[in-house]
Design goal:
With about 450 residues, this protein is α+β, with helices and mostly antiparallel strands. It is about 25% helix and about 30% strand. It is built from 12 helices and 21 strands. A hairpin with a 3-residue loop joins strand 6 and strand 7.
């Protein structure tokens, strides 16, 4: 096997078999500079009177039964919510089953409506922690804190709805807010909308945000679960401001917009990062966030935000996003919330994650064996790798080459055929590959590579 072909194949194979999830990594603290900006505001006295609505005020153990709603607070304005903390323990589906709703000024419908985990940017239903400036999640994904400022003129109604099949085992909350004599001029209302595609519809992007009025878009969290192998974030972000694409960010590849280049980087920053990355296999999940605190996108009349699922919207992945924005009056986010049963995405099992981790280890060992031309070791490692994950295109091709070098024609042809069926397309390369010399005059080989 030539070293050029080995390196190429190994690199391509590595692209198909990503590093294992970094879910257990400790996230770094938010940037010191960003935190110090908030501290400087404390040198000026804030207005208003401190208020709190908390589960502790009610006494006793509070639980939220299945198919019921609990009121966390009904606040009388004008005022502004400074901190919202919710802690919940229970079924593993709760992070998608429990919905947070916030209604401003006696509105007929909530302006904030999203599954709890997605609202706090740790979807899709995973118990993950988050360290950012606007929101934090701790205690292995069970303690949620929002620091978004949420002003209201007349009133605020904050609810949790359990759309799951089990009651909570533990539930606590605190809503810290300030009663104000009047809202400052130009105050905007906080909004959040959940949208999902389960799976995404071929040929159409997913609409994340569509609203009319004046305000500013301040961020998005996005989760994906792969319906096919490969990178999920190659599509573009589309933003239409006041009916014009020129007033908003230019079309940008999704992962680039979240601050990533070569796949998902699971580092967490003050305003952007990732809370989950399980790789690029089918069923693997990812979750990323970006909060536009330093760079909000203003709009005077309307805004629409859409995301692609692959180039040309051809990928069949599941996508879910929460858009965050402020607006001059309470608005009802467009679109209905997806039913709880459709929001439950089956997570990879512990056995699957373990197998993926072992496959990644094998892949790295194969590459190292190739580099030193230890083909016997590479052969044994590839056999184990293909047994563990039979659908790896370049692992099958490489193993076919090694069988051919060993004179094992039937095995080589079988694996070459399998690689082609799985998507190996470099047939002109295979025709000239010196490692397949022993197959060259074989009729089956010539048909497989298009010589007959």
């Amino acid at each position: 096997m030539t070293i050029d072909r080995v390196v190429l194949a190994a690199v391509l194979c590595a692209a198909l078999i990503p590093a294992p999830a970094a879910a257990k990594k400790k996230a770094p603290a938010p940037a010191q500079a960003a935190a110090s900006e908030g501290l400087s505001g404390l040198t000026t006295r804030v207005s208003g009177e401190f208020q709190r609505a908390a589960s502790a005020d009610r006494g006793g153990e509070i639980l939220l039964p299945a198919n019921e709603t609990i009121l966390l607070g009904e606040l009388s304005g004008p005022g502004v919510i400074d901190r919202l903390w919710i802690a919940v323990e229970g079924s593993d589906t709760f992070w998608r089953d429990i919905v947070i709703r916030i209604t401003w000024d006696g509105g007929v419908a909530p302006s904030v409506e999203a599954p709890l985990g997605d609202f706090f940017a740790v979807g899709p239903g995973a118990r993950q922690d988050l360290r950012s400036i606007p929101m934090q999640v701790s205690s292995e994904g069970r303690s949620f804190t929002s620091f978004w400022k949420m002003p209201f003129a007349q009133g605020a109604k904050i609810e949790l709805v359990n759309e799951g099949r089990s009651p909570t085992r533990q539930l606590m909350w605190e809503v810290e807010w300030r009663k104000l004599p009047a809202l400052p001029p130009g105050s905007l209302y906080f909004h959040a909308r959940y949208a999902q595609a389960n799976p995404a519809e071929t040929g159409r992007p997913l609409s994340i945000l569509r609203t009319a009025g004046a305000g500013q878009w301040v961020g998005m969290s996005l989760s994906a679960q792969l319906g096919e192998p490969g990178a999920w974030g190659n599509g573009a972000l589309h933003v239409d401001v006041d009916g014009s694409k020129r007033k908003g960010p230019a079309e940008t590849p999704i992962l680039n917009w979240f601050g990533n280049l070569f796949g998902v980087d699971t580092d967490q920053g003050a305003f952007q990062g990732a809370t989950l990355d399980e790789g690029t296999r089918v069923k693997a999940r990812s979750s990323v966030y970006r909060f536009l605190v330093q760079d909000p996108v203003p709009f005077d009349k309307s805004i629409e935000v859409q995301i692609d699922h692959g180039v040309g919207n051809e990928r069949a992945d599941r996508l879910a996003a929460v858009a965050y924005w402020y607006q001059d009056s309470p608005a009802v986010p467009s679109g209905e919330l997806a039913p709880a049963r459709d929001r439950r995405w089956e997570a990879p099992t512990a056995d699957e994650l373990s197998a993926w981790e072992r496959a990644d280890e094998l892949n790295e060992a194969v590459i190292n064996a190739y580099r030193i031309q230890d083909l016997e070791t590479a052969f044994n490692l590839l056999k184990e790798l293909v047994t563990l994950e039979p659908d790896l295109v370049y692992a099958n091709y490489n193993l076919a080459c090694l069988h051919a070098l060993r004179g094992e024609v039937d095995e080589a042809l079988h694996l070459l055929e399998q690689a082609i069926e799985l998507g190996f397309e470099q047939l002109s390369f295979a025709r000239q590959d010196p490692d397949l010399e022993s197959l060259r005059e074989h009729e089956r080989f010539r048909k497989l590579v298009g010589l007959e």
